[in-house]
Design brief:
- This protein is mainly beta.
- Helix content is 7%, strand content 58%.
- The protein is globular, with a radius of gyration of 29 Å.
- The N terminus is likely disordered.
- This is TonB-dependent receptor.
- Belongs to the TonB-dependent receptor family.
- Its main location: membrane.
Length: 854
């Protein structure tokens, strides 16, 4: 309830600025002042927003290499109408305007990116602040914008060295402290973070170079409890009221005490000769995750066909669900595991601009590659005896359960087995050529014509291997230790996981070479190829209508795509065989953006946008893999599950209307409405199809009807003369689009947040900086796992961050910050059932650092 009240508190701020703006305008005197720091970034961002012909949100750097947050993901999550899901305690994938990551387009310097996710979504936390000068979030479409973002297209910008004067360098070094590490023995509590950027110009400022780097070794810590779901159809009557009581399948707890090591490097060169400019850039990011984990699994309490009725006691039944009870004679397993994940991203690009008479020409050639290798090594041990498990999972984050036996004694468990679960390898390659031409003209309201063409080729593939290893030798009890974590039952863990497992299972236990792939492994592999071509024409406008000056653009983009999905097919559990399918489509995407100036000073703007946008299907859902059951009677349909290489893109006909008042430098009051009519929405369902010439009833992703998404966005932002500043936003979004699961009570569309808002207050004076921000979102549906359609509801959250800085000298700055100050937990609710929750705690994070600028 407190979180819901915060959303209305944020909304109430928009009643304040009208009177404040007029009073401030009268009191402010015109002065020539040097503006830097937070105030400078605010003004620069608003200047870009005001000048843009599209409706945009902008993040601008305070100074060279100095974005307001550690990664761009944290900054994006604070923008109006945007938020983010959390991964390993970090802001990661963006949600915008009621739509999830599948509707978010992402580009780096205008170039589409390969990703290490199975679909198309980009994890924005991979981009540290040192590598970027800012970001532009396009909420409306224009013909020249790369297609792919129905909700938004987010363009990340790298530094442009020729726009700076003289040699500059900036370095930072931080010490980070993770408070949750105090609760977890053996966890890393502190970590370093370093980064910097250097740029210079040569040969009379005709050549500019920039080099940026970052490195951090972040602890990956969490405490987690998870409900496995309920036996909905084959339980029994436990309390004698004649009704079946739905019983849990089981529970698990989990502790992670790992590291998330990330590094990146950016190189960029620009050469200018007259009106010609040639630039080349390279970005490389590497992430290495090593996560030792400890888990307990306790199941066998599902009361299948009422077989365990006599073992149940202390019942707490709510709405037909057994939210609490005790069950006798239940076993458990202890899992001492290691998650290993390596991710690499490389983006290369060359861009050339020149003039030929009245024409301005541009060519851009780019390629990007992403790879991900991961493996879960699970040392699994089952208890020798049983006990009485007791639990109380009553919702609202309450998750209490006891195992009823000594889980911290190695003697209480049988010998271990080693499970290597999904040694997975993903690869994504994307190449693009983009050509543009523009010239100024004077024909009525048209002052410029733009034309362009783009060609792309993308190939994404995934394969996995799963196996088990029996021990070659026993692991002595002396190799184990008992790990006591607050709020969890004791665990047993190897003192030296690598040495003990090598001795017991052999040095090659984790090598997939020579391990045959299981039936499921073969069916899980896939390759998707996609070729695209697009053409666009756009007219930039500047004129007068109804006595008001206006500017904007109107154009059309035509997109043609050919796609092929490959995979394996199994019939009745038989040997998998190769299968391939595909389709092609052509879409026409018109767009109009108009900005009407409501006064002579052009401070008040009325903005209107009408467009059609598209978002392509997630790549992993376009796989051709099938697992089918075949009835001997040819009149009976095939049944099973499959990918769908014939998926078409999701479309949206959309209209945006906004009133923006730039009533002072660094000040904005804005109110906007948007409406999107989505068609061909992709959801997982069972549909009637024809496969290999035979009727089939298959569960797979399918283009459906869709529906509408509508919302309102309010923004108030102001920099006061007393060096105080405030930035606030609130968005309300509604939709009639629903997912296809769970049956009978489907989720709303993935990403829909009814309430979303934020408040940031900052102060800057005499070398001091202070900033505090609070960002809230109501519950929304998300897919936090790799599996398509694994939807859960992410409960409402409020994240609070504080930061302070002081210039010790003109070039040296001391900084201190706190993230997640209120220790906000992440809560997932499954199947629209309030008693089926997963709760994860990441804890607070502190940083202390120095920045040095030359």
């Amino acid at each position: 309830m407190k979180q819901k009240k915060l959303s209305w508190l944020i909304a109430s701020l928009f009643a304040l600025p009208l009177a404040a703006a007029d009073a401030h305008a009268q009191a402010d005197q015109v002065q020539q002042v040097s503006v830097s720091g937070i105030r400078c970034s605010v003004r620069n961002a608003l200047a870009v927003k005001e000048a843009s012909d599209s409706m945009v949100e902008v993040i601008a750097s305070e100074d060279i290499g100095k974005l307001p947050d550690t990664t761009i993901a944290e900054s994006l999550a604070r923008l109006p109408g945007l938020s983010s899901g959390m991964d390993r305690g970090n802001a990661s994938q963006v949600v915008a305007r009621g739509l999830g990551p599948r509707f978010i387009g992402a580009t780096l310097n205008g170039r589409e990116l390969a990703t290490s996710e199975p679909d198309r979504s980009v994890r924005f936390e991979q981009f540290p602040s040192e590598s970027l000068s800012g970001a532009t979030v396009y909420k409306t479409q224009s013909a020249e914008l790369v297609e792919g973002g129905v909700a938004t297209t987010i363009d990340l910008k790298t530094v442009q060295p020729l726009k700076y004067s003289g040699r500059q360098a900036w370095l930072r070094a931080d010490a980070l402290y993770y408070a949750l590490g105090r609760d977890i023995p053996g966890a890393k509590k502190t970590a370093p973070r370093v980064g910097g950027i250097y740029l210079d110009q040569f040969f009379g400022k005709s050549l500019g170079v920039a080099l940026a780097f970052s490195y951090q070794d972040q602890p990956s810590l969490q405490k987690n409890k998870d409900h496995w779901g309920f036996n909905e159809t084959h339980s029994g009557d436990l309390d004698g009221d004649g009704k079946a009581d739905k019983t849990p399948w089981g529970f698990q707890d989990k502790v992670l005490r790992g590291t998330d090591e990330r590094s990146s490097v950016l190189g960029k060169a620009e050469w200018k000769n007259g009106e010609s400019l040639l630039s080349a850039d390279a970005y490389y990011a590497l992430a290495k995750i090593r996560e030792p984990g400890l888990q307990h699994w306790s199941g066998d309490i599902g009361n299948w066909d009422n077989a365990q009725k006599t073992r149940y006691s202390k019942l707490d039944i709510r709405d037909g669900y057994v939210a609490g009870a005790s069950v006798a004679d239940v076993g458990l397993s202890n899992h001492d595991s290691l998650w290993v994940q390596d991710t690499r991203t490389l983006a290369l690009g060359v861009n050339g601009k020149t003039t030929a008479g009245a024409w301005k020409l541009e060519a851009d050639l780019s390629t990007s590659r992403a790879q991900r290798a991961s493996q879960w090594r699970d040392l699994r041990q089952f208890s020798r005896g049983t006990g009485t498990i007791s639990w109380s999972f009553t919702g609202n984050e309450r998750q209490d359960f006891s195992l009823g036996q000594d889980s911290g004694n190695p003697a209480g468990f049988w010998g271990p087995t080693m499970h290597i679960d999904t040694d997975g390898h993903l690869k994504d390659e994307l190449g693009a050529l983009h050509l543009n031409a523009a010239r100024d003209i004077d024909v009525g309201p048209v002052n410029r014509l733009k034309f362009g063409a783009r060609a792309t080729h993308r190939e994404k593939s995934y394969g996995q291997t799963t196996w088990e290893v029996a021990p070659l030798a026993a692991i002595p009890d002396a190799d184990y230790e008992t790990v006591n974590v607050a709020g969890m039952a004791p665990y047993i863990a190897l003192r030296d996981f690598g040495a003990s497992t090598a001795a017991a299972f052999g040095p090659g236990a984790f090598d997939a070479a020579g391990c045959p792939r299981s039936q499921n492994d073969l069916l899980s592999g896939w390759t998707v190829r996609e070729r695209g071509a697009s053409l666009y024409g756009q007219a930039d406008l500047d004129g007068t209508l109804f006595g008001k000056t206006f500017r904007g653009n109107a154009g059309v983009r035509v997109v043609h795509t050919k796609q092929t999905g490959e995979g394996m097919q199994a019939l009745n559990g038989g040997a998998p065989t190769a299968v391939s399918e595909g389709t092609s489509y052509t879409e026409v995407l018109p767009s109009v953006n108009l900005i009407f100036n409501m006064d002579d000073q052009q401070e008040r703007q009325l903005r209107l946008s009408v467009a059609r946008a598209m978002s392509r299907a997630p790549l992993d859902e376009m796989r051709a893999s099938r697992n089918l059951n075949v009835d001997a009677n040819p009149a009976q349909p095939l049944t099973g599950s499959a990918g769908n290489p014939q998926l078409e893109p999701m479309l949206a006909d959309q209209i945006d209307l906004a009133y923006q008042w730039y009533f002072d430098k660094g000040a904005l009051l804005s109110a906007g409405l948007f409406y999107k009519e989505i068609s061909r929405y992709i959801g997982i369902t069972s549909d009637q199809a024809t496969l290999d010439g035979r009727s089939a009833l298959v569960t797979r992703s399918l283009n459906g009807k869709g529906g509408n998404i509508r919302g309102v966005e309010l923004v108030y932002q102001q920099s006061f003369a007393n060096r105080l500043g405030v930035s606030s936003n609130y968005a309300y979004t509604a939709s009639n689009v629903h997912e296809n699961i769970p049956a009978g009570k489907p989720f709303p569309i993935e990403g829909l947040m009814r309430h979303n808002g934020g408040l940031t207050v900052w102060y800057e004076q005499a070398g001091y900086q202070a900033r505090t921000s609070a960002n809230y979102h109501s519950a929304f549906v998300r897919n936090p796992t790799w599996g398509a359609g694994q939807l859960v509801e992410n409960d409402a959250e409020t994240y609070v961050a504080l930061s302070f800085a002081k210039h010790l000298t003109p070039t040296l700055q001391l900084r201190f910050g706190v993230d997640n100050q209120t220790n906000q937990k992440v809560v997932y609710t499954s199947a629209n059932n309030p008693y089926e929750q997963e709760v994860t705690e990441f804890g607070r994070r502190f940083n202390l650092g120095l920045s040095f600028k030359l």
